[in-house]
Write a structure and sequence with these properties.
The chain is of the alpha+beta class and about 210 residues long. The chain has helices spanning about 5-15, 20, 45-50, 55-70, 85-100, 135-140; strands spanning about 35, 40-45, 70-75, 80, 110-115, 120-125, 130-135, 150-160, 165-170, 175, 185-195, 195-200. Strand 6 and strand 7 (about 130-135) form a beta hairpin. The chain binds zinc ion (ZN).
């Protein structure tokens, strides 16, 4: 298929998103309200930030303590960090937290839960049923959360679009796979990405 055909497919797909797929779009990270008092960093709206991410504040405190290697405490609704930490770092840590502890590793849905299975913490997705052991920060720093043109991925088709094309969710993107059937897990080659949507072609498993 030529480039313009992929563009046309994307145009069409963007106009016809179903509600079920739209509801699984990525969570927007709430803007942290940060102030500094001497050498201390305070996130004034921490309680509402963590509530929007739907996780136990203790999990975030443990994560951030490990990442920054400093004392952190909660004084609801504020989070107190015993060091001056710039806004960009805090935003980046929130983004990493979202990728590790909130969004499903397969479909990107934020409708997930952290469960203890044996000695392992598992992120379980209520949208697609996927279960994965929690990642480490070093794992997500390797572009694990993005999608690249020209690379292959394994995705599950969970819906059929209005033109009969298969649709699945992966890493927060909607993937359009012409010719794929509902419920099928397929290896696909990503041909073109635009915003949160990608067109992919089925490839043979090797
Ligand atoms: Zn999922």
């Amino acid at each position: 298929m030529g480039e313009d055909i992929y563009s046309k497919l994307l145009d069409k797909a963007e106009g016809t998103f179903s509600k079920s797929i739209r509801s699984q779009r990525r969570l927007k990270i709430p803007e942290p309200d940060i102030i500094y008092e001497g050498k201390v960093t305070i996130i004034r709206n921490f309680a509402s930030v963590i509530e929007m991410l739907n996780r136990d504040p203790k999990i975030f405190i443990k994560f951030l303590t490990r990442e920054l290697g400093i004392g952190i405490s909660m004084d609801p609704p504020r989070l107190i960090i015993n060091k001056k930490v710039d806004q960009e770092t805090i935003r980046k840590k929130l983004e990493q937290f979202l990728q590790i502890y909130v969004e499903c590793y397969e479909c990107g849905s934020p409708d997930t839960e952290i469960k203890r299975v044996g000695r392992v913490d598992v992120l379980e997705c209520k949208a697609c049923g996927a279960q994965h052991a929690l990642k480490m920060t070093k794992d997500i720093n390797q572009n694990e959360s993005t999608l690249e043109e020209g690379r292959t991925y394994s995705i599950t088709v969970n819906e059929i679009g209005p033109s009969g094309e298969g649709r699945g969710n992966f890493r927060g993107f909607t993937i359009i796979v012409p010719g794929a059937k509902k419920g099928e897990t397929v290896k696909v080659l990503v041909k073109k990405i635009r915003k949160g949507t990608a067109i992919a072609e089925k490839v043979k498993e090797d």
